[in-house]
């Protein structure tokens, strides 16, 4: 739950919960906080549930369920180059490291191999929903969407639009071609997942530096004609990027909010990655236009030359939607657990910078950003983000003891809050025993019912 002004979030830990899925196993049908495991029959009768028709699974000691993690910003074609080129400024990093890597996705076999590892890797780390930037290539982007659907990950998949300021070997052939390939990817994803149960295309102008006036205009038009499609771009990430953007688009006087708004790309379905350097005017615009922020604290402090984390506490206080992004590969880690920890570190720096005005983030705050906050940013809060009745079952079963190689150390007498905190601060994918997306087991053990 959030505080009255929305600026802080407390964690609700329910020691004896009973969660019932619908007969298809996709949605949460019932949730009780007062289940009595020592007398389940009586407990279920009291809850008025048809006990003979329910398969019940009990969690073992030290195990608990949490909502799946949501990664609101990452780059699938950077999977094999995560963490490379740390310390380079953003435009140099793109030229030297990133564009050569992403250009390899012209080859569908390469795309299949890397994207397969990428989707598996995210699922293994508990990322049940991801908003992916693809490469510029249509074929590769369709392959990524196919893989998300086949492997059962909830995903936004975006063909990346780039029509200038990159090498000839890595750019759309023309503005027309850029928009045409985008339309083809949209059609493909609608064909493979007609009700958008898991996968959606996300319009993905890489950032204004990569796009001409005509490209941004064309994408704004597609956004207008397709109100179901989300939009994502990089926004006010680092000084080098902001200066170059201002030079290319002097008419907006350095305001990226005005720039993207002008092209019809800002709205309630827009995910803005980074938002590190924000003027008061830009804060107001993105709030009024209901854009969401993908906070990427790992990449902000390691690559790109920003070393400036977004003012997350300020966003929360203003009611601007915020979630976490791994931004892998600029971010060296694709784990949302790492993003949570780094969000705490970045927030300590902000507390210092603001002389205490922006309090650092708590465990409850970062867990919110990793789950429900991310769902709000992606416009998926009616479907996922927590265990409300009616939502879909995207969940992680966490184990904190007795697993091979486990790093968390739980002691007798630890309450569930302490065990949870130990998992968030010291756990990794070995603690994430089972992963469910829309009720489908995408990592782990088949459910054993008793
Ligand atoms: N800005 C434009 N492209 C990128 C990218 O791939 N990563 C990051 N961090 N910023 C960008
Ligand atoms: Fe990024």
From TrEMBL:
The keyword Disulfide bond is annotated on this UniProt entry: no
Documented EC number(s): 3.5.4.3
Catalytic activity: guanine + H2O + H(+) = xanthine + NH4(+)
Gene Ontology MF, one: zinc ion binding
Coiled coil ranges: none
Cofactor binding note: Binds 1 zinc ion per subunit.
PANTHER family recorded: GUANINE DEAMINASE
Similarity annotation: Belongs to the metallo-dependent hydrolases superfamily. ATZ/TRZ family.
Protein name: Guanine deaminase
Organism: Cladorrhinum samala
